[in-house]
Write a structure and sequence with these properties.
The strands form 2 sheets. Strands 12-11-7-10-9-8-13 form a 7-stranded mixed sheet, covered by helices on one side. The protein has a 6-stranded parallel sheet with strand order 3-2-1-4-5-6, sandwiched between helices. With 290 residues, the chain is of the alpha/beta class. It has 9 helices and 13 strands. Helix 6 (114-126) runs antiparallel to helix 9. The chain has helices at residues 11-22, 45-48, 51-62, 70-76, 90-97, 114-126, 173-184, 243-256, 263-282; strands at residues 2-6, 32-37, 65-66, 79-82, 104-106, 131-132, 151-159, 188-195, 199-206, 211-217, 224-230, 234-239, 286-287. This is Gfo/Idh/MocA family oxidoreductase. InterPro entries: Gfo/Idh/MocA-like_OxRdtase_N (IPR000683), NAD(P)-bd_dom_sf (IPR036291). Pfam families: GFO_IDH_MocA.
């Protein structure tokens, strides 16, 4: 299976390629990243400052062919990873490759608005494209196996770096939000967010009355973790994201059509962060109306 990458301005381009090419996984044995479109956003310093370096390494270290357009990447490969760091670009990039009907993974942040997320999902349905987006934190190997029905609540913590072009919560907050939804499941009904110069606190209330929180840390350790409250115990678990486990799920979707994260849940995660942004600015609780 030949994989194409759109967006070489993220460190995930190299990390995912390295994982697919060098990890001894049966699922990856016939998977090769063969083509890429570099991209890059001029008004996003973290994007434009490193895209040329990453593109050079992709060609030198892995023999990836650089293409002048996203369409040529889609035409020459079997499945696509949209890894552009800038979530504002994902909708237009997806629109451009829809006619090729190739399976697609879109890296975080999926989009920066519910409107864009809804349009991508609608296009995927229209063109019958298998579509997935997820944070690698969802696949942390230390996550305990719990059925969602046993979970009373969860408190997630993690870094909350802010990039001005990506909204307040979408750049790094999406990792913690993805983890919260991985544990709690869909069905959040309202969101309240508070922010200081040091931290953010986001509280979600689910339809059964269960509550989940995110503590976003800007001044402190660069680590993720969760306190998981079940009917029998409370467990605190430090977590490390897993690119390998994420990519196993992505390739399983590409090859076998098996979803571990459905687009409808991704849409709810984006709406959750959008509501948190609104709550932070308006200093009030916001309802999760989809």
């Amino acid at each position: 299976m030949n994989i194409g990458i759109i967006g070489l301005d993220s460190s995930h381009a190299l990390a995912f390629t390295r994982t697919l090419h060098e990890t001894q996984e049966t699922l990856f044995s016939d998977v090769t990243v063969t083509a890429a479109y570099a991209g890059g956003s001029p008004d996003f310093p973290l994007s434009i400052s490193r895209v040329h370096t990453f593109a050079g390494r992709m060609t030198k270290e892995y023999g990836v062919r650089l293409m002048p357009t996203v369409q040529e990447v889609a035409e020459s490969t079997d499945a696509i990873l949209i890894l552009s760091a800038d979530g504002r670009t994902h909708l237009n990039q997806f629109k451009a490759i829809c006619p090729y009907r190739k399976p697609v993974f879109i890296d975080k942040p999926f989009t920066l608005s519910t409107a864009d997320a809804s349009e991508i999902i609608k296009l995927a349905e229209e063109f019958q494209i298998p579509l997935m987006s997820a944070s690698s934190l969802r696949y942390a190997e230390a996550l305990p196996e719990c059925t969602r029905g046993d979970i009373l609540g969860a408190d997630v913590y993690g870094p909350m770096h802010v990039e001005s072009t990506q909204g307040h919560y979408f750049w790094y907050g999406i990792h913690s939000a993805e983890l919260l939804f991985r544990i709690m499941g869909p069905g959040c009904r309202e969101v309240t967010a508070f922010s200081t110069d040091h931290d953010d606190l986001i509280t979600g209330t689910w339809k059964e009355g269960r509550m989940g929180t995110i503590r976003g840390i800007r001044s402190g350790p660069e680590s993720f973790g969760i306190s998981l409250h079940t009917r029998n115990a409370t467990r605190h678990v430090p977590l490390e994201p897993s690119y390998k486990e994420l990519l196993k799920s992505v390739i399983n979707l590409f090859k076998n059509g098996v979803y571990t994260v459905h687009p409808s849940e991704t849409l709810e995660v984006i709406r959750f962060l959008e509501c948190a942004e609104q709550s932070r600015l308006q200093k009030r609780t916001v309802l999760m109306e989809m």
